[in-house]
């Protein structure tokens, strides 16, 4: 029996696509593909989030602190922190959430 499950890619808006890569009750891995000018609007959620920048350049804001990241960078966003990003150069983010984000299923 295969443990690999395929999830569809979802068009979030004109500039951003999302695809769940893997998940269980306690952990979820999600890829976000951004075109230049794409944004992840400021938001907060009860999940701890780890973000890995696979490609591209992004400006992130976490609880009012703004910083730039590019391919190879990673960081953790605490639960309930207000955060968002703007894509400066098209790329892909791989986010891990604990627990799973049921709203993405």
Automatic annotation (TrEMBL):
InterPro entries for the chain: Bacilysin_H2HPP_isomerase, Cupin_2, KdgF, RmlC-like_jellyroll, RmlC_Cupin_sf
One Pfam family this sequence matches: Cupin_2
Domain of life: Bacteria
UniProt-listed SUPFAM superfamilies: RmlC-like cupins
Name used for this protein in its record: Cupin domain
Residues in Cupin type-2 domain copies: 32-89
């Amino acid at each position: 029996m295969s443990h690999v499950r395929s999830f569809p890619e979802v068009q979030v808006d004109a500039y951003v696509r999302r695809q769940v890569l893997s998940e269980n009750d306690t952990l979820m891995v999600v890829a976000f593909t951004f075109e230049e000018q794409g944004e992840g609007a400021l938001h907060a959620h009860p999940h701890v989030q780890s973000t890995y920048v696979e490609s591209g350049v992004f400006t992130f804001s976490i609880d009012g602190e703004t910083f730039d990241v590019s391919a190879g960078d990673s960081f953790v966003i605490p639960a309930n922190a207000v955060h968002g990003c703007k894509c400066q150069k098209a790329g892909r983010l791989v986010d891990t959430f604990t627990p799973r984000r049921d709203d993405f299923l």
